[in-house]
Amino acid sequence: MGLSHLHVRWENKRYERSRWMIVVAMIGLAIQYAVQMVFGFRAADDSLGAVINILVYTPCFSLISLGIYNIETTRSNLRKMILMCSGIYAAIIVAFCVGISFHHSLYIREGLYVMLALFCLSVLYCIYMIIQEMIRRKNMLETMAAMDMLHSGSHNKIFY
Q: What is the pTM of this model?
């Protein structure tokens, strides 16, 4: 994905920004996989592996979603989505830190469920925003195409 930049004839700033968001997310997921394998968090305990996964998957999923949304949107709602994703991730970090302070280890028990709920909220929010923008874009294109057809139809009547 990073090397695909070399095959582009005309650069589009929005597309390039989206590409690099997705590249960073993929690198984050690769690092997370390597850390899981080297340190064996998943092998040690499922809940410990889940905590580590949520801490890494949330920003990676958000970056992928923001990359997609950035390509689709023509409005400034990208900032709103960035703030919302960042806020949810901050809440996940707070839940993680509170869990560590209560249990004095990475086994945060009930904190994991709070983190999981926030992660699910993040995923649902990102998917909802992307779908809403796709529907808005589709409606806009259909409206523009219908107007073109109406104009071309009225020109045809003049020539008949």
A: 0.78
